[in-house]
Amino acid sequence: MRLQGKVAIVTGGALGIGEAYSLGMAKEGASVVVADLDDKAGVAAGINASGGKALFVKTDISRKAEAERLVAETVKKFGRLDILVNNAGILFTAPVLETTEEMWDKLLAVNVKGLFFCAAAAAREMIKGQSGKIINISSIAAVGGQAGLCAYSSTKGAVLPLTRVFALELAQHNIQVNAILPGTTDTGMAKAAMADPNWTRQITAGIPMKRLGRTKDLLGAVLYFASEDSDYCTGQTLIVDGGFSMV
Ligand SMILES: NC(=O)c1ccc[n+]([C@@H]2O[C@H](COP(=O)([O-])OP(=O)(O)OC[C@H]3O[C@@H](n4cnc5c(N)ncnc54)[C@H](O)[C@@H]3O)[C@@H](O)[C@H]2O)c1
Question: Which residues sit with their C-beta closer than 6 Å to ligand 1?
Fold first, then answer.
């Protein structure tokens, strides 16, 4: 098991891609803290019931105090923090001229500031042990231009320099900070758009592998960045999108 004895936080870990990260990391031996607005599907309870170790911490990452409490509760329960998967995110789609100030404020609060609050709180704890892994979840929307995604793409773009600066400043503490850029993946977030069969057909046609991503497609990348396999890799980005962004 690649993460035996490690303690990991997965923000947005109760649903979608985050749920796959929570379950997959628990399978690899990590104690997993599922941080989310709620845990309706009972991901943490499911991990405990199947012999793993997990804790649900109700967290709104856009609130700095809640991000700090998340780390404190993790350390209280499991004694340390080794891995943060900074996955929670929200999406609004709108043409540029219909993108509102409220959309911007909400997207920035969760996708940029919330991600920063969690990374900073985790880094403070990891520095004490002089080791750690921070994995920020961006999107292929950060590197291409997709209609309707002006504000969302901008917030996901912001994750890239944020990752590099954290990586640079934390390298001296043996903390690696990397980012994953998923392609369109079959989750609740993509559901609204996927309800339109034309949209799904159009997107799928542009993917060399001719299918949308599944949540399990993203697990390998997170396990690489969470494990000692990536100990000499920092400030990097890995695109997992069936080849969509290469053409
Ligand atoms: N699904 C895709 O096609 C896709 C593509 C590229 C990148 N991503 C990114 O991957 C990540 C996960 O996406 P997903 O598709 O699983 O989304 P999802 O909507 O299925 O799940 C997101 C989870 O984050 C939680 N969350 C939202 N706001 C939160 C907050 N303020 N505090 C704590 N938790 C919060 C939600 O409750 C939910 O459980 C996001 O950062 C998203 O931007 C998704």
Answer: 11-12, 14-18, 36-37, 59-62, 87-90, 110, 114, 137, 139, 182, 184-185, 187-190
